[in-house]
Design brief:
The complex is a heterodimer. Chain A is mainly β. Chain A is built from no helices and eleven strands. In chain A, a hairpin with a 2-residue loop joins strand 6 and strand 7. Chain B has no helices and eleven strands. Classes of the chains: A mainly beta, B mainly beta.
Chain lengths: ~110, ~120
């Protein structure tokens, strides 16, 4: 059974710092992995999608890497800003026949201090 | 519309009452997901539709939960005889592709409180 873990559960950093959020998963048979952002009281916004054949994806100040063999992904945020404060979730989609679900971690709550 | 729309945004139900939650996915999106999110937790999968076909309902917690998407667009999640443990945010998401995977777009959720 696929399990997704995110470390740390919460993080508070001063503005301008570069930071790394970690995501690990137990079953390496995945179609893809997505990183999402969730603001309080809101739905999820997809940040980056990495297909299983890819190693990384970049969008602006965000870079996500994927190491399928070790079951790990990292989300790197450069030059953090107060507006980056949110909960960041990773989710994986497995390849097991008949399985269509994305399995989510419990998220990392990020607070960037001005 | 431009995004995934869910209604109602907030619902307070008395225990034992039936509720229906509606999801309008992005026009033309093939895939539609329902998730349940408890406070402080990640979303938990409930069910998946590809067009009108419900291909995976393994996450529905009991036979009180029922979902449909009869014409392959709008979907309804129905909860019968609600119980306090059903209190959660119910999130709908859609995607333009099927199993191969693509960016998925979430609605803002329906917040259900059972009293």
């Amino acid at each position: 059974k696929q399990e997704v873990t995110q470390i740390p559960a919460a993080l508070s950093v001063p503005e301008g710092e570069n930071l790394v959020l970690n995501c690990s998963f137990t079953d390496s048979a995945i179609y893809n992995l997505q990183w999402f952002r969730q603001d309080p009281g809101k739905g999820l916004t997809s940040l980056l999608l990495i297909q299983s054949s890819q190693r990384e994806q970049t969008s602006g100040r965000l870079n996500a890497s994927l190491d399928k063999s070790s079951g790990r992904s990292t989300l790197y945020i450069a030059a953090s800003q107060p507006g980056d404060s949110a909960t960041y979730l990773c989710a994986v989609r497995g390849t097991t026949s008949g399985t269509y679900k994305y399995i989510f971690g419990t998220g990392t709550r990020l607070k960037v201090l001005a | 519309g431009a995004g995934v729309s869910q209604s109602p945004r907030y619902k307070v139900a008395k225990r034992g009452q039936d509720v229906a939650l509606r999801c309008d996915p992005i026009s033309g999106h093939v895939s539609l997901f329902w998730y349940q999110q408890a406070l402080g937790q990640g979303p938990e999968f409930l069910t998946y539709f590809q067009n009108e076909a419900q291909l995976d309902k393994s996450g529905l917690p009991s036979d009180r939960f029922f979902a449909e998407r009869p014409e392959g667009s709008v979907s309804t999640l129905k909860i019968q005889r609600t119980q306090q443990e059903d209190s959660a945010v119910y999130l709908c998401a859609s995607s333009s592709q099927g199993i191969s995977g693509n960016t998925i777009y979430f609605g803002e959720g329906s917040w259900l409180t059972v009293v």
